[in-house]
Structure formats: structure tokens, C-alpha cells
Amino acid sequence: MLNVGIVGGTGYTGAELIRLLSRHPDACPKAITSRSEAGLRVAELFPSLRGYTDLEFIAPDSGDLDGCDVVFFATPNGVAMNQARQYLERGIRVIDLSADFRLADRSVWERWYGMEHAAPDLLNDAVYGLPEMARERIQTAHLVANPGCYPTAIQLGFLPLVEAGLVSGPLIADAKSGVSGAGRTANIGFNLCEAGDSFKAYSASGHRHLPEIRQGLERMTSDPVELTFVPHLVPMIRGIHATLYLRIPDRNVDIQKLFQSRYADEPFVDVMEPGQHPDTRSVRGANTCRISWHRPQDGDTVVVLSVEDNLVKGAAGQAIQNMNIMFGIAEIAGLDAPGMVP
Amino acid sequence: MLNVGIVGGTGYTGAELIRLLSRHPDACPKAITSRSEAGLRVAELFPSLRGYTDLEFIAPDSGDLDGCDVVFFATPNGVAMNQARQYLERGIRVIDLSADFRLADRSVWERWYGMEHAAPDLLNDAVYGLPEMARERIQTAHLVANPGCYPTAIQLGFLPLVEAGLVSGPLIADAKSGVSGAGRTANIGFNLCEAGDSFKAYSASGHRHLPEIRQGLERMTSDPVELTFVPHLVPMIRGIHATLYLRIPDRNVDIQKLFQSRYADEPFVDVMEPGQHPDTRSVRGANTCRISWHRPQDGDTVVVLSVEDNLVKGAAGQAIQNMNIMFGIAEIAGLDAPGMVP
Amino acid sequence: MLNVGIVGGTGYTGAELIRLLSRHPDACPKAITSRSEAGLRVAELFPSLRGYTDLEFIAPDSGDLDGCDVVFFATPNGVAMNQARQYLERGIRVIDLSADFRLADRSVWERWYGMEHAAPDLLNDAVYGLPEMARERIQTAHLVANPGCYPTAIQLGFLPLVEAGLVSGPLIADAKSGVSGAGRTANIGFNLCEAGDSFKAYSASGHRHLPEIRQGLERMTSDPVELTFVPHLVPMIRGIHATLYLRIPDRNVDIQKLFQSRYADEPFVDVMEPGQHPDTRSVRGANTCRISWHRPQDGDTVVVLSVEDNLVKGAAGQAIQNMNIMFGIAEIAGLDAPGMVP
Amino acid sequence: MLNVGIVGGTGYTGAELIRLLSRHPDACPKAITSRSEAGLRVAELFPSLRGYTDLEFIAPDSGDLDGCDVVFFATPNGVAMNQARQYLERGIRVIDLSADFRLADRSVWERWYGMEHAAPDLLNDAVYGLPEMARERIQTAHLVANPGCYPTAIQLGFLPLVEAGLVSGPLIADAKSGVSGAGRTANIGFNLCEAGDSFKAYSASGHRHLPEIRQGLERMTSDPVELTFVPHLVPMIRGIHATLYLRIPDRNVDIQKLFQSRYADEPFVDVMEPGQHPDTRSVRGANTCRISWHRPQDGDTVVVLSVEDNLVKGAAGQAIQNMNIMFGIAEIAGLDAPGMVP
Questions:
Q1: Which residue in A29, A33, A45, C294 could disulfide with C303, CB within 3.0 to 4.6 Å?
Q2: Spatial contact of B219 and B277, defined as CB atoms under 8 Å apart
Q3: Predicted ipTM of the assembly
Q4: CB contact under 8 A, C280 and B232
Q5: B236: which chain D residues are within 8 Å (Cβ-Cβ)?
């Protein structure tokens, strides 16, 4: 049984880690930290967990994570880069759900995140934890940078086509997220009266997930990549829907076959039949990324639809998937539950 | 491994049975019927189940349920009373999620449901499947009438106080349900544009769950019971919240202790601390009924708050709990997952 | 044309006042204050008002409200009691949408609101602005205490029956509100991920609107009144639904006639046919309180259903109705628009 | 005072016409037809209209529309093309909110709508009622084809840029609509449990509004137009958000100026400041189309964001705007109300 530590457990990804681990056969949370809530029972903050955990939040500087096999950082950006090293040095593996180790290029990271990187030397050690692209490297990694929510859905939607070198011209990712993507935050913009029964784009001029997606695309192909990425806020709790536009002039490509063969052995990518439309609720609470594609009017433009639960495959679920890979546990352990519908 | 048959699997309770059984260690769906959708793959109707079931809907008259150990009826009212006998006669146990066998008094049933009962002799054999009140009888039952969604939350909220003979005067149950309580139905009243961003009472003059709740209350006490029950429609998908009002003039009663001791051994009833307020999302997808109580202004009126997921503890989850009890399986098997928050 | 000043215009009631005044034929906002947003254009904070107002928020201490005929306080509790006097002394009438002047009994106010009252002498001058109970006094009032949102729906639902002396025994008000009732506040509990797709009671042990409702009931009858009031949070933006329970043993009372005759001349109270159920959306954006009643199972308990838009008849609309009455304008001026459905 | 007739008034556009006309100074509904609901009071179907209309639905074949100056068709596709002529021949002007007269090319219409056109000769007389493109022709029109909801938001977003000949390469319109866009229909797919708390694309391979948008684009420019249009369903009631992607390599174009000057005299198009993001709620219930634009990463791709209320500027409001233009009434009459926020 793996002992799991969670740093920064008062947010949605922290709560989701505990929820998912509560049914994991081979791992369980041993300690969970929070600076602001130290001493509070986890189940008091999240009554849904009553009966499923007896843990209390502990102060982050206590040594109680020492016995852990793996530590998840479910912290805001800027924390893990300062604290990961102390665990790594004690032989504890680290999976960071924040953005601190996602970009290999330090200067790009510093520009988009607006701070100096505190552990640039670790950037080389960190493995970008998208299992569908880097499973082997993850197996031996000590520090995994868990991908962002948008980047996961978007990269998995683009991957088979970009990798095959089929794409000509600029890429567009029009992406939509439920409000939980913003975290558990008391921001007026996410009040139900503001975000409910309404829809809008945000950060259209530039969002931090852009360089992360671009880095992923560049690893798929040696061709230059031009990407426009516009995120939107959907009046729902969980779910990301990415609508991807690519130019693939060649009508003879068997796109369905490309997707199916690329993901044939992937336990958490589901390729639908041609012409179908995945909805986000079909993956609500599940670790699945569900994909379909269209070629409207038989034109040059191909449309890929890719959905995931931003808190599961887009965060905590994928982090546990990475843990399973790192420790040689069955990859689906604790994650083989269907989406909750309705 | 128990073989499970499901009659009428295209509704929400049918889909929820499959979702919950997908993680049950000792039972799995073997066949699922639907008159209208015979031949369709279950996962085509419910894409969330892609990868979790290969079943197709089969015509209800086929003999494919013969090998089943237990058959769930997830059908509209009026079906099970015509079909249950054929399974019982072949030694297959039956759990009916509809209302057909819930009322012991045939004439009351016929008045509220507006049809003649097709199997009145079975009413005596049927055990009303509220485990917290009838666990022993359920163990040996061949035909279980699974309680209604409102009746479950309301009876569990009233039970310790009524049973203890503390209540004086009329009872009020002001109950609120998410839209899934109405089933998977193409009724304009449940269109998101009609039921969304709005709130209303319905059936205030009389709802079919009233006699069922009253029957339960009368089993708890020999005192006469006067009950007013008003249901409301909440713009949400899952969840029932019952707000119960009782007159308990005696201030010396330790209500908290009553609740805690009554439910001490119940795996699926969670009594909160005094003064807390359960929210429905804390049991979203879980088989838990969560309860707290208040005595406002230290007056004669006690207020009990009781929440459940209408599709789980209020339907499919409780049905599986009953199955576990009937077959001597661990009662929590397949059901020990926390609510999904957020 | 009346010149209107608004103190504290960055909340929902402030924005709603401007929205409603934008179509008022005889009044228009002249100045609007905000300590935190001074200098900001109102339409920048509320883009829905682009093209409908050129006002900027001004600092609250500026003298720009001097030319106003009436000043609305759309401030948190505790502000108007400190500032109303300066306007009253200059002959400017004041309508306070906060709770500062709602309770005639200073000690009750101080107990429930947890602070000392800064202008207890004004409590006698203040008229509680529920037009259906106090129209004549409002006409000549200089200081109107605009009723709370729950109290408006609940008092109007109880009024005809309590006034007629028909009620025997305790009253119960089970009330439900949309999230905007909590104001425009960055509280995590009202984040869409927390308040959405969920339902709960709150303040069940005692809510500040209780003494206000009780005061109103005591003005309707000389009988002693016992009231239990439990508010709930509905995952919707606007709307209040009150479900009221009263004991009226006398079956010969013509309740429908009582309601209809009591409200025959009221422009903003709509009595439905017996047996109907009002939904909150039917008054979305409108100044109407819509009411129906039931006598379930022909028993002693009568159930009254009363809905309103908490921001309109429950706040800004009723404030404008009061202004119209105070200034001898047609009472429906600016308020005669139907609810927005869907 | 204009007498208005409405054919097919039981849907959302019919109800919205009545709501908007209730505050129109120069027009009022005189008769409203419905085959299925003849004899029913309109306010019984839509309780929000209680007190605002005494009309009953009448059978569509009655002659009661004879005294009308204008008849709105708020009917499903295929009705107006069979019935419009009878009104036109009696000198009654017709505004058709359905799709029957939107496409000038009969064969394109018949291919996309799957039926033979019943009045192809009227296609030449019909004026496509987008005031921002065809105000002068609308003034003298007898038959106006009111634009579709998506086409209105999308054409207004593209118009200044396409008209100016700036666009190079294919256009993409990624559009999102609230559920009311599907009409008042008892379809299971729009049940709150199916469409709520979820997001999906639909008709990605081809939607009927595509040829309508393409026709509009071709009227703006002589250049060939390639368009990909993917609609999505948002879990909200009202609102359309179009995210438009265009290639404009020339960095020297002053896009903001282009938008502002093109729409300077348009009462119902609001151009925001550069870098802003309109949300759909800002136009909830209003006849406004609100637009902003971005040039992400200063690249070749320009992103235009365009929002409207699909039932107002996208249907009933624009129809009244057209009526105002046709009858020489002030264009904003009955339509100058801000969006309802929150």
C-alpha cells in the first residue's frame, strides 16, 4: 500500500485526489497539509468525505510527509518549485499538479507566469506527465509535471493528426471549461450570479496554457506550429470541451483509423464513431478523454471534439494515473469508474 | 458472482444500476431489457458507459433473464405487478424500484395510482425495503419493494423521533427534489428552459408518495399520525432535501443522542453535528442519507434536515443495498464511494 | 422628473435600481456613490448598462447628492443609520434598502444585527415600506425602511389569513431563495461550484429576517404569533419561493375570496386560481408577488405558496414602488413589465 | 397603434413577442393563433403574462387576423411559406421568424430543409431582415425574412471586416447557444438532466444556418468565402456567443475603428473596447448584439467575440425592430431596455 502525501489540500484538486484515492486498492492518503486550515478535519471542510477520511490538515512545515512514498502538490503556482526538492532529496517522488514544472524552457515559463523560477535545475528532471505521450519516461521519473486541464484535452485531440504530419496551416483550439477549472476561489466572477446562466470567452489575447500546448505540439512534429487558443467559461461545474480546427487537405487520409490505432492501447482515451458528438457529462468524474472528429461539408477543415473532466483526466485523475505508472501499479487502479450521468 | 437482470433499463434508475454495478465486486449485469430499444447497445444510449458494458438491450419477453439470480424492475408503475410473478416462480428474486408493491393496502394503492392492482396477493409477500427499518425481513425476502425517493429521505429523518414517541401534533415534510426525480422523460416541464433557474412547488394538494410515507410513519408508532407533504422542483439534476417540522415540547430530550444511537450501526445514514446543514451535493452519487436537526429559538418546533441522492439512496443504490442484504453480501459492497464534490 | 441618488451602487440592488429606473418615465438616476469604485463608469462595472447610463461612481462624501429629491441606500447593514440623517435634514427623502430601520424595537434590532443602533430616534419616523400594509403612511413618509426579500414574500402570503384572525397554532415559513439574495459578494459559498447543482438550508436556527416577519405578523393581528422560519439556498440566480403552513380548522372559510378581495386593488400582488403553483421564473425581473394556496387532503393545514423576484419586489422594485407612492407618481410607473420567461 | 397578429404563439418566440410588445408604445398584439391550444388563455400557458394580456389563442384558420397591420409567423419551418400569401394579398405585411424565406436560392433551401418550397415566387419579394445590412429595403418590404439566431450574431461579427475586404483564407465560426434556441420542445435532449451541467457540440458536420450565414457573407464581399460553422449547446437558457476566427495578415488595419465606424449609427450593436470580453448575460432580454475583438499574440489570426440574446436580437426583438422600420416607427420603440443582470 502506497503512502500518499498531499500538499495544499483545500482546493478542488486536493479534494478530488482524496475522493479518487478513497477507492484506490493500492494507495491511500497518509497526510494532507494546509497552511490556513491546519487542525481542521478534512471531512469538516468537505462533508462529502465524512466517513471516508479521518485526516486532519496539518501545517505544511511539519515532517509528517516523511513516510510518504509520493507527494502530490495541489498548490497554487509558485509553491512546488520551492518545496519539491526537499521531498526529492529524501527519495520521495513528487507529482506536481500546478504549472511549476510543465515548461522545459525557463524563460518562457517566467514570462507567462510572471515570476522567477526557483528551481530551474529541476526543469530538466521533470517529466511532463501526459501518459499517452511519455509513458516510459514517467515510469522512471522522480518528478512529474502533471499537465494542465486544457492542455490535456487539446493535446490528445491533436496528437494523432499532428504526429502523422498531416496538418497544413494554423491550428485553432476553441476550448470551453466549467467553473471548477478556476479552482476553489472566492472570486466574484465565479459567483453563481455572475457565472451562472451566461457564457463568455476570457483571456482571448493570451492564456498561460498556450505555451504548454505549443510545447506539446512541437514535440509531436518537426513542422512549425501556429496555434490560436481561446478559452471560454461555461456555466457548469466540471468539464472541458475542446473544439479543434485543422486544415487537412488530403481527403484520402483515414482519420478514424489514425485515431483508433493511436489510442488502441490507451485505457483512458475513448475514440467515438465518426459523426458523433461527445458531451462533457459523459466523463463527469471519470478519467476518460473522449474524442470524435468531423470533416464538415467534406472540406479542407477537420474538426476534432475532445472532452474530459478537468478535475480528473485534467488534474487529479491523471496525477493518480501517473502515480500508478511510476510505481508499477495497474494503470487503471482506482480510476476505472464510468462518468456519472445524469 | 451474482447475475443481475434489469427490466426497463433506458431510464435513469436503470442507467444508475449499471453505473453502480460496474464497480460491484460480487455482482454484474447479465441482461437488460427494453421494449423500445431492443437491439441497441446500452453504451450507445449512455455513452458514459462506453467501455464499462457490452450489453445490448433485449426485448422484455426473451428468456435471457432466466439465468439471473435477481431481477431489478426499473420500469414505470404498473409493469412489475404484471411481470414479477414469472421470475419469482422460477426462483429469481425480485427488487422492484417502481411503486407497485410499496403499499400494503391494496385499496389505498389503487386510489392513488389510479389502476387496479394486478397482483394483490403478492402485496403480502413484498417486503418494504428500507434497510434501516426492515433489515431482517429483507434478508429472507423474495420480493422487495424499493422505497420511493422522497419516502426514503423523509422516513429516515422522522424515524428516531417518531419511534421514540416524542412527537406531539401534526408533521410537516417540505421536500425538494432535483429534476432527475421525474425520470428520463421528454416532458416540456423538465426542459432546461422551463425547470432551469426557477423553483416551484408541485402536487401540493396531494402526491403519491404521501400514503407511502404515512404507512412508514404508522409502522414507527402506534400514535395517530397527521402529515402534510409538499414536494418542490429544484433546478438541479440530482438530490433530495427534506425539511421536516415536528412539535417536541419536551426540552429535555437529547435529540442528538437519539439520532446517533439509532443510526450508530447504519452504514448509509450519517448524522451530522447539531447546528450543521447538509447540502445535497455532499451525497451526489453516494448511497448516503445525511441528517442534521435544529430547534430554532429553543421553541417547541424541531426541524430535521435530511438529504440524499434521489437516484442512489433514493433508488438504485438502495436497491443494490437490498440485494446485498438479500444475498448475504457485505452490505456496503459496490456502494462505498463518497459523494462527488464539486 | 425626479432626481434620484443611490448610495452604494456596486451591489445587485444598486444595479437593479438603475436597470428599473432606465425605463421609468418620471425619475432618473442623477448620482451614484461607491467608496471603492469612485471614478469608475457604472457601465464598466455592469456592461449590461452600456448605453443606458453615463454615470460614474462618485465618492460617498461628495455633495453631489444635494440636488436629489430622493436617496436610495443600497448599502450593507449599518451604513444608512449613520448617513440618512444628513439627507433628511436637507429635505431629501430617504428609502433604505438595508435592514437599518426595519425593526421598530431598537433592542431587538441590536440583538439580531449585533451592533448598536446609531440613530434610534429615527426608528419612530421610519415607515416600514410594505405598500400593501402601509400605503397611506408611505405617502407622507420621509424615511422608508424597504422590507427584506423574505419578509415581503412571507408577509404577503400570510396577510389575508392572519389579518382575518383565522389562524390557530404555530406558523411555519419554509422559504427558498436564489443566490442573488446574498448580494454581490465574493464568498466561496456562492461560487457556482459550491452553490450550483445543490440545495441546502442555512441559518435554520435563526435568521435575521425572523424578527422582521414576526413584527409584521404582530401588526396584522392581536393574537400571539409563533413562527418558525427556515431559509434555503436554491441553485438559481433570482427568485424567492415561500411555502407557508398554517392551521385553519374552519373548513367554511372561503380562502380564495379572502385573498382576492384583500388584494383586489393591489397592482403587484397576483392571486392565482386555487390549486395552481406559481414558479419563481414567472416573476423574474418583475415587481409582482404571485400567490396561490392549497388545503392538502382537505385537512386542517393550509399551504400558501408565494413567489417574488428577490431583487425586484423583494428589493429595488419595491423601493421604486415606495418612491412612486411618496411622490404621488402613478404607483406602477417604471414597474409595469412582465416577468422574463423563459 | 399598430395591430399585430401572431401565428403560432405557443413557442418561445411567440411568448417573447408578447413580452416585448407589452411595453411597445405604438403596437399591441390583437390576435394570436395556435392550432393545438385554441381557446386557452395565453396567460394560462405563460403565467408570467398574467395581467399583461387578455388574449386567448384562436384557431389559425379564423379570420381574426384580418384587421392586423402586420402578422408575425412564429411557427416551425414550413408553415409560413404556405400561409404568408393570404395575408400579403390582403395588404397585411408579414414578418416570418422561421427559415422559410431566408435563402434566396430555392434549391439550396430545399436541400437543407428537406422539403419542396411552397412559395418559391415569394423568395424574390422577401427581404432578409438584418437591419444593419438592409435597412432601406426593409422600409418598403411587405415580406421580411427575420434572420436566424446564429446568423445574426455571426454576420454582425464578420460584417465590418469582410465588407472591408480584409479577410484572407477560410473563416471559422465556433458558436454556442443556450437551450431556448431549440424552441419550446419536449425533447429529451433538452431535459435539464441531459442538457444541464454539460456542454457539447452538435451538428458539427452541417447545420441549417450554414447556408444562411454563407449567403450573408457573399453579400458582403465579392471574394469567395469558405466558412466552417460548428454550433454548441450551453447549459443556460438564453444567449448566443459566437467566437469568430479570421486571417487578417495586415497589421496596419485599425480594426477597432472599422467596427466603431461601421456601427456608429446602429442602435443595437455595441462595440466594446479592445481586449474586452462580452458575456451573454449582458444582453439577457435586450435587443443588443455586443462585440469585441482580439489579435492573440499579435498574429495573423483575429478573433471576434459576438453575443446576443437568441430570443431577442436573434428572434423576436429583431422582428419588432423590423416592424418598426417597416412602419416608420422609431426603430428603438419597445426595445430600449438594458439586459437583465444578474
A1: C294
A2: no
A3: 0.97
A4: no
A5: 196
